[in-house]
Amino acid sequence: MKDSAHDTGAAPEHAGHVEHVEQAAADGARSHRHGGGPHEGGPHGGASWATAVKATLHCLTGCAVGEIAGMVIGTALMWSNVSTMVLAIALSFLFGYSFTLFAVRRAGLDLRSAVRVALAADTVSIAVMELVDNGIIALVPGAMDAHLADGLFWSTLLGGFAVALLVTTPVNKWMIGRGKGHAVAHAHH
Predict the structure, then answer these.
(1) Higher per-residue confidence, 187 vs 175
(2) Cα-Cα-Cα-Cα dihedral of 143, 68, 17, 6, to 10°?
(3) Distance between CA 185 and CA 176 in Å, rounded?
(4) Between 139 and 8, where is the model more confident?
(5) Residue 8 contacts by C-beta under 8 Å, 6 or more apart in sequence?
(6) What is the value of pTM for the model shown?
(7) Fewer C-beta neighbours within 10 Å, C or N terminus of the chain?
(8) Are the CB atoms for 76 and 100 separated by under 8 Å?
(9) What are the pLDDT digits (tens) for 85-110?
(10) What is the pLDDT of residue 185?
């Protein structure tokens, strides 16, 4: 599979996305040719853990940019906890989708099709990450009321990202192995 982003010098985060897309496609094709086994996700093929981690890191990058921006904006403007969290979640989806959207548009997909691919590729992954990350922030005592200068603010936020990575990676592995989630974007690279 050829990707024009490689040839045109795409941004580093998109190059990483392209690499995981190509690896996932190769894993899926390899598993499909061999019929898959009990450890490869059955007859629909499977995905390697490396592919799942790369897909999750791609998604986590967009989520983290949006989450941090939302938390910083809401906290700096002294918004309520709910308003800040809603903004952070909205920006996480926006940035998460935009990374995939940019990559598939660079590969030549029209805007409408690219939006469909981004929605199919990232919705479950971003939703799981946001549920886990924001759940941790809500459950850590004092984290919701911490200010930007507080270590608790940053340690909870970053800790939530780490746990979200661990929880979302198996979800992405399962979905990619069945031709869903990030696998949807693979055909367009």
Answers:
(1) 175
(2) -160
(3) 10
(4) 139
(5) 106
(6) 0.73
(7) N
(8) no
(9) 999 999 999 999 999 899 889 989 99
(10) 67
Structure tokens at 134: 């924001």
Residue at 65: amino acid letter: V
Residue 2 CB neighbours (<10 A): 8
Cβ-proximal residues to 36 (8 Å cutoff; 6+ apart), any chain: 42, 43, 44, 45, 46
Token pair for 164? 């979200």
Say how far apart CA 169 and CA 165 lie, in whole Å.
6
d(CA 27, CA 42): 13
Residue 160: CB partners within 8 Å, gap ≥ 6?
132, 133, 134, 135, 136, 137
Q: Would you call 41 helix, strand, or coil by DSSP?
A: coil
Q: Which two tokens stand for residue 36?
A: 């898959």
3-state helix, strand, coil in the chain (%, to 5): 80, 0, 20
Tokens read off for 143? 């984290």
Residue 100: both structure tokens together: 């995939």
Q: What tokens were used for 127?
A: 């939703």
| C-alpha to C-alpha distance for 188 and 172, rounded to whole angstroms | 18
Distance, in Å, from the CA atom of 85 to the CA atom of 43, rounded to the nearest integer, reads 41
The tally of CA atoms less than 13 A away on the side-chain side of residue 178 is: 8
Residues 94 and 46: their CA atoms lie apart, in Å, by 28
Phi, psi of 82 (to 5 degrees): -65, -45
